């Protein structure tokens, strides 16, 4: 078997409506596919060549605080941090810089971890 790409990542959520508000209104993602019936189902957000999904109701859609982490690349890191602070989003790790990027760790309403990330421009060797 040869794995050629990640098809999608999915976070289980307890309240699909509340989570959609977070991902769409707070993070600005646009739903590209929805499979929703009432409070159950899955919503997909295509981001570049990948897909981040949220799902509620199925046995495999259970929030797992401390489980996997999805890093979301942003165009303007400082503006993203300001927006998150203005809306009272809890920071699990304050914004910081590494040799290759800037990042901050937050959680969605169910405790699923997200990294807001900005790569530094590569410098010629």
Q: Could you walk me through the main structural features you see in this protein, from its secondary elements to its overall organization?
A:
This protein is of the alpha/beta class. It has one domain: Roll (2,3-Dihydroxybiphenyl 1,2-Dioxygenase, domain 1), CATH 3.10.180. The chain contains 2 helices and 8 strands, in the order E-H-E-E-E-E-H-E-E-E. It has a 4-stranded mixed β-sheet with strand order 1-4-3-2, covered by helices on one side. A hairpin with a 5-residue loop joins strand 7 and strand 8. The chain is globular, with a radius of gyration of 15 Å. The N and C termini lie far apart (37 Å). The model has no long low-confidence stretch (mean pLDDT 87).
- How many beta-strand elements? 8
Number of helices: 2
Radius of gyration: 15 Å
Shape: globular
CATH topology: 2,3-Dihydroxybiphenyl 1,2-Dioxygenase, domain 1
Task: Examine the secondary-structure arrangement and name the CATH architecture.
Answer: Roll
Q: How would a crystallographer describe the biggest sheet?
A: 4 strands, mixed
Summing up helix and strand content along with how strands pair, one would put the structural category as alpha/beta
User: How would you spell out the order of helices and strands?
Assistant: EHEEEEHEEE
Strand content: 35-45%
Mean pLDDT score: 87
- Strands of the widest sheet, in order across it, are 1-4-3-2
């Amino acid at each position: 078997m040869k794995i050629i790409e990640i098809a999608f990542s999915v976070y289980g959520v307890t309240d699909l409506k509340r989570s959609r508000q977070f991902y769409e209104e707070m993070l600005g993602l646009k739903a590209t596919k929805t499979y929703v019936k009432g409070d159950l189902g899955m919503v997909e957000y295509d981001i570049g060549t990948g897909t981040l999904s949220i799902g509620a109701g199925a046995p495999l859609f259970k929030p797992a605080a401390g489980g996997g982490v999805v890093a979301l690349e942003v165009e303007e890191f400082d503006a993203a941090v300001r927006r998150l602070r203005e809306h009272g989003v809890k920071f699990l790790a304050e914004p910081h810089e590494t040799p290759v990027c800037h990042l901050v760790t937050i959680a969605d309403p169910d405790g699923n971890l997200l990294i807001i990330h900005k790569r530094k421009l590569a410098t010629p060797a």
